[in-house]
Amino acid sequence: MMHMTFYWGKNVTLLVDSWQTTSWTSYSLTLLACFIISVFYQYLEDRRVRFKLISSKAGNPTSQIDAPLLQGGAGKASGSKLFALRLAGAALFGFNSGIGYLLMLAVMSFNGGVFVAIVLGLAVGYLVFRSGDGDVATLVVDNPCACA
């Protein structure tokens, strides 16, 4: 039976029919998995933002002189290297988006414990990996769009 309102209980079907919890042990392990995956999502988001920052510096270094005639081509990434960096960034973005959508679908099981485990995992992951980034926070503006 698919619930359409939040409920509390140990009987949950999460993402696929084969992932069902019927005991408190399996339910606890499921909540732990949701928590760990949520923390991992925040870790990957931090890596993605840092990778984007590094790859943008590789394509357009700011440490050189700002005069365009004196700057030359030294320090800039080659076309193939820049394409490889963009491709790797896109792959990381796609993988992280997939995890985010799976977390969203897990919350849509409408189980209160799953919801709390995912929100706590996201909060702990943000605290551990993303809250103390003064260098990244000043250089990368957080996008308020949930899908970006």
Helical residue percent band = 55-70%
Shape: elongated
Determine the mean pLDDT: 83
In total, how many beta strands?
A: 2
Explain this structure to me?
Its main location: membrane. Belongs to the copper transporter (Ctr) (TC 1.A.56) family. SLC31A subfamily. It is found in: Membrane. Pfam families: Ctr (PF04145). It is a multi-pass membrane protein. By secondary structure, the chain is mainly α. It has a domain at 12-57 and 80-132. The chain has helices at 24-59, 68-71, 79-107, 112-130, 134-139, and strands at 12-13, 20-21. A hairpin with a 6-residue loop joins strand 1 (12-13) and strand 2 (20-21). The mean pLDDT is 83.
Topology of helices and strands:
Elements: E1 12-13, E2 20-21, H1 24-59, H2 68-71, H3 79-107, H4 112-130, H5 134-139
